[in-house]
Amino acid sequence: MYSLFASSDAHVAGGITAMFAVLLVALILCLALEEKLHAKKSVIAGIFAIVCLLLGAVCGILPFDDIVVGSHEMTKVEELAGEYVLDVDNNHEPHPIDEQEADTVHVDGHRLEMPVYIPGINWAVIAIILGSSLFVDVTSRSGLFTWLALRVTKLSGGDPLKLLYCYGITTVVFSAVLNNVTAMIIVGSLTAVSLEKLGRRQQLLAFLLIEGLLTNIGGLLTLISSVPNIIVGTTAGISFLSFFLKAAPFVVVATALTLWLGARFFRIRMLATEEERSAARELVAGFDENDGVQSWGFFFFSTAMLILFIVLIATASVLPANINHLGMGFIALSFAGVMLLRYKSDVDTFYKSVDWDLLGFFMALFVVIYVMEHAHVLATMGTVLESVMIDIKQESAHWRDTVVLLWGSAICSSVTDNIPLAAMLSSILAELGAPTAIGGSESGLWWAVVFGANLGGNLTPIGSASTLVAVTIMHKHDLPMSFLAFVKAALPYAAVQLVLATFYVLLFMR
Predict the structure, then answer these.
(1) Distance CA 274, CA 82 (A)
(2) In a 10 Å sphere around its CB, with 0-12 CB exposed, 13-18 middle and 19+ buried, how is residue 261 labelled?
(3) pLDDT tens-digit readout, 19-40
(4) Are 372 and 416 in contact (CB under 8 A)?
(5) How many other C-beta atoms are found inside a 10 Å radius of the C-beta of residue 54?
(6) What is the pLDDT of residue 97?
(7) pLDDT 10s digits, 303-329
(8) What is the DSSP string of 175-234?
(9) Which residue, of 41, 102, 281, 500, has the fewest CB within 10 Å?
(10) 98 pLDDT exceeds 60?
(11) Is the pLDDT score of 471 beyond 70?
């Protein structure tokens, strides 16, 4: 997010921007042809990351300056005009601050040499995926997830449609209070156990796909459910309560509609006859959730750790004493470390089970997007959106502006990181004077960005981390799901969700 603004003032030739835009399209095409190329996602994205870095260095668009650490940021420069502070390079030569020069200044600190691609990687996402995966893997050894899955299965009476509804609602709630990736990892693990026990493994792909799509709907529920929500909501001055009250009706309707469509498309039906229902009840009655528990001490410890993990992830942004700045990734890795103490002599077993292809893909993709930011590819997308708008200063936004911004941000976020995209569009709306909640009532354009940035993740498997995790779980269980297959399967859901979001914003957010 910060690199986007850091590079936004540097001039980049139009030809260079076009060249990198072509590279982005080529990456998407190669990922779509992943199976025909017989290459893993991490290798494909890694090759493009190497090419982008080389071209970025040759074209001179990458910032190779040292990173300043340990400095103090002074943000109200206008109040310091005429006063003297230390230069940012720490040469101890004072100079006057000109309030026209900058909005912020860093004093003291020292420079640290760092590879240019390191700041481009969103390490918070990497830490969450790695920590959550290890935590869930170790916790599953206690039998807790099997126990929970069998309890949910019994609650459904063995009916596949009721089971879909149970896990669908759980996915939305977890995505709202945790984060999309952690929610998908936990719910995906439970779903696999339930369907295996019911002998309905053939429906696992359908369940995982629907749950993956629901993570991005659940991410709309509160101001802190996703990073784009935080960026747009804080810029527009939308309070936590106001955000929840305005987003909740859409989340409820979209969840119900997605579950209905999923059941219809994948022919997941309620058991029709009394004979089928009786056989299912008899089957689940024979399940003993206690069979998988080898140590009740470890079981109860894992239960307490899971509850504490959920609570801390849900409240990470409001933890006291600057602990919140460590982020959810730190929490996930910390809990993984504590759980690994149980198997401290053979932790390599869990390290081998980590999906390193997924982590490698994300790191390479973040590097590609980082270079795209410095090549002004994302800025160009924002400029194109801005150029077709009519008037964004009115409190009641023009319907065409709302449609263009919502669908444009959705399409862009389906192939790029929605965090810098949301940051860029928020900056554009703020600079062009879109009404905010601070001034009375926010423009519907802010909500268009929120809905577009979140729901766009359902258009492609690389549109959001949670949908990619869903595909990864499918592959883990030997279920076929290529890039094109995901787009083909998810497109009807995403289209319906975006159409619903469009009418919702036009009718209730203007």
Answers:
(1) 85
(2) middle
(3) 998 998 888 788 777 767 878 8
(4) yes
(5) 11
(6) 46
(7) 999 888 878 877 776 777 677 778 778
(8) HHHS-HHHHHHHHHHHHHHHHHHHT-GGGHHHHHHHHHHHHHHHTTSSTTSSHHHHHHHH
(9) 102
(10) no
(11) yes
H-helix or E-strand spanning residue 69: strand 67-69
Residue 78 confidence (pLDDT)? 45
Contact criterion met (CB below 8 Å) for 2 and 120? no
Task: Extract the tokens encoding 196.
Answer: 């295996």
Dump strand ranges (E) for 335-396.
none
- Pairing assessment for the beta strands 110-112 and 67-69 based on DSSP bridges: antiparallel
- Among 375, 455, 358, which Cα is nearest to 59's? 375
What is the rounded CA–CA span in Å between residue 200 and residue 194? 9
- Single out the residue of 219, 229, 225, 223 nearest to residue 251, CA to CA: 219
Residues in the chain, total: 510
Instruction: Dig out the tokens for 52 from the structure.
Output: 């982008």
Strand pairing category for 84-85 and 105-107 = unpaired
Q: Where are the domains of the chain?
A: 2-62+356-508, 67-112, 123-203+271-353
What phi and psi, each to the nearest 5 degrees, are found at residue 111? -90, 140
Which parts of 219-295 fold into alpha helices (H)?
Answer: 227-236, 240-265, 274-285
The dihedrals phi and psi of 320, each to the nearest 5 degrees, come to: -80, 175
The residue assigned the tokens 């859901």 is 493
Tens-digit pLDDT profile for residues 377-392: 877 866 776 676 655 5
Sign of CA dihedral 383, 384, 386, 391: positive
pLDDT at 9: 47
- 445: tokens are 């354009």
pLDDT in tens, 43-76: 998 999 999 999 999 998 888 776 766 666 655 4
Residue 216 burial (10 A CB sphere; 0-12, 13-18, 19+)? buried
- The three-class DSSP label of residue 110 is strand
Count other Cβ atoms within 10 Å, centred on residue 47: 14
Nearest partner of 258 among 495, 506, 507, 508, judged by Cα: 495
- Give me the pLDDT at residue 503, please: 92
Look at residue 428 and tell me whether its pLDDT is greater than 60: yes
Say whether 389 sits in a helix, a strand or coil. coil
Residue type, 370: Y
Task: Find residue 67's DSSP bridge partners.
Answer: 112
How distant is the alpha carbon of residue 163 from its chain centre? 25
In this predicted structure, the answer to whether residue 210 has a pLDDT above a threshold of 90 is: yes
